[in-house]
Design goal:
This protein is α/β, with parallel strands linked by helices and 468 residues long. The protein folds into two domains: 280 residues, Rossmann fold, CATH 3.40.50.1820; 160 residues, 2-Layer Sandwich (Alpha-Beta Plaits), CATH 3.30.70. The protein contains 16 helices and 17 strands. The strands form three sheets. The chain has an eight-stranded mixed sheet with strand order 1-2-4-3-5-6-7-8, with helices on both faces. Strand 13 and strand 14 form a beta hairpin. Helix 3 packs across helix 4 and helix 5 packs across helix 6. The longest helix is centred in the C-terminal third of the chain and has 30 residues. The radius of gyration is 24 Å and the shape is elongated.
Length: 468
């Protein structure tokens, strides 16, 4: 049976890389796996479809993460059916079928008691395996999990992606990279290349289709294994309410929040949390790791897609007249403080102040909406703004503005500003393109219909975000 590595892989994999081995499933598929490190077993349960054990080891940053884990545990990785180095001819991607992949690998290793480390939709397989083989699983670490497959990617969003998947696979994979790392970032483009080598477009679509159908509520009810549920603060994958629902459905789960992106690998904070959960000293692995020189900050692409956010303090002129210069300035300072705190907490960039409002940009639609919601909550509970019944209105749009002299210009900027002016105090209005970018992320919207905005030729369909 042929198991070709991705093109270009031969020159990337060093001689000391873990040997790729194969286990055969009960339904006849060859599953590639690799082992590194020493000590008790830790199984890195894959979150398909972007898995490739050899390319992961060939990447310097991923390899460093795996070597770090290998200082405290024997790390087992495998490519699920249809992906990476495993059999690409599979046509059954149900959860039962994917569980057979893991059973084959664990059987080859002698079914050792193991910790399962996974994230996002890889949690489906980890939970299913623990439910059927409770004696083999000592602990589960689940990063940014969710109960239902549609909480990761809705059926509506998959339908939107399907035509792109089937006609322009490069565009799809680079859009996925942009969703993870931000539009215009080199890491997003590199992720797109990696994704295409991991899996075919047809298999990716079938895997997503199968994973959407899974709901773990009943499965988790059968799992008593101690579980550490981690939500990374900067995650673009699972909103906090989604992770909380997952933790609540598990019998023996501990929920913690950690800084960083889910793509950052085992950060010192994650290593500490996992080590404490297992009752082990994982600081040794971090202290022995070579110093990683931070990558230089990416240069913004002036034509990159950006999420544009405008705020406006309602009734500013009347407020200044009523309170006077000193009292009015106190209100404005509080507004500025709350806005800048929210931008800093959610990765937003202040473009400029507008006297009684702000213009800001984001690389992620989800972070922009989370920022807007957090800002409205902060304003409503503020001793100064909230008690004075001062409210802000927020408008959000997405587009490719022109960047010049630390400012942004263009049609998308004008539309965002006009949308903000259509909002009432305490409201967040978003353009339809923004709503589509966060489909399946757990946000609730009310359709406000198409609005004719001053200075724009065509109406813009606008939605009100429910932030309360």
């Amino acid at each position: 049976m042929d198991h070709p590595a991705a093109a270009g892989c031969d020159n990337l994999v060093a001689m000391e890389s873990p040997r790729t081995q194969y286990a055969t499933t009960s339904d006849g598929h060859a599953i590639a796996y690799a082992v590194n490190g020493s000590g008790p077993y830790l199984v890195a349960v894959p979150a398909p479809p972007d898995n490739h054990i050899e390319l992961e080891w060939a990447d310097p940053e991923r390899r460093e993460n795996l070597e770090m884990l290998g200082r405290v545990r024997t790390v087992v990785r495998f490519d699920g059916r249809g992906t990476g180095m495993s059999d690409r001819s599979a046509d059954d991607f149900s959860l039962d079928a994917r569980r057979r992949d893991m059973e084959a690998v664990m059987r080859r290793l002698g079914n050792p008691p193991s910790v399962l480390l996974t994230g996002t939709h890889g949690t489906q397989l980890a939970a299913a395996y623990a439910a059927v083989h409770p004696d083999e699983v000592t602990h589960i670490i689940a990063v940014n999990p969710f109960l239902g497959g549609e909480e990761f990617m809705s059926r509506e969003k998959l339908k939107m992606w399907q035509s792109i998947l089937e006609t322009d696979y490069t565009l799809f994979t680079e859009a996925m990279g942009a969703e993870i790392f931000g539009w215009g970032q080199e890491r997003g483009r590199q992720f797109g290349e990696f994704f295409r080598q991991c899996v075919s477009a047809e298999t990716a679509l079938r895997l997503y289709d199968a994973m959407i159908e899974v709901n773990l509520t009943e499965t988790l009810a059968a799992v008593d294994t101690p579980m550490l549920v981690i939500r990374t603060q900067d995650s673009g994958f699972s909103a906090p309410p989604v992770v909380r629902r997952f933790a609540a459905a598990a019998h023996n789960a501990t929920l913690v929040f950690s800084g960083g992106l889910p793509t950052d690998g085992p950060t010192p904070d994650l290593m500490r949390l996992i080590g404490e959960f297992l009752g082990e000293d994982w600081s040794v692995a971090e202290s022995e790791a070579p110093h990683r020189v931070p990558a230089p900050a990416p240069v913004p692409d002036v034509q990159a897609l950006r999420i544009l956010l405008f705020t406006d303090l309602e009734g500013h002129t009347a407020m200044m007249s009523q309170l006077g210069d000193h009292g009015g300035r106190e209100v404005l300072r509080e507004h500025e403080r709350l806005t800048r705190d929210a931008l800093a907490a959610h990765g937003g960039s202040e473009v400029k102040t507008l006297g009684d409002g702000f213009m800001a940009s984001f690389g992620s639609a989800q972070r922009a909406l989370e920022c807007a919601s957090a800002l409205q909550r902060a304003v409503s509970s503020s001793d100064i703004l909230g008690q004075r019944l001062m409210r802000i209105r927020i408008g959000i749009n997405a587009g490719e503005p022109i960047a010049e002299d630390d400012d942004l210009f263009g049609h998308s900027v004008i539309a965002a500003s006009r949308i903000a002016l259509q909002a009432a105090g305490g409201e967040i209005l978003v353009a339809n393109v923004v709503r589509e970018l966060v489909a399946g992320k757990g946000f609730l919207f009310h359709d406000r219909g198409p609005l004719a905005l001053r200075g724009l030729d065509e109406p813009v369909r606008v939605w009100e975000l429910n932030w309360r």
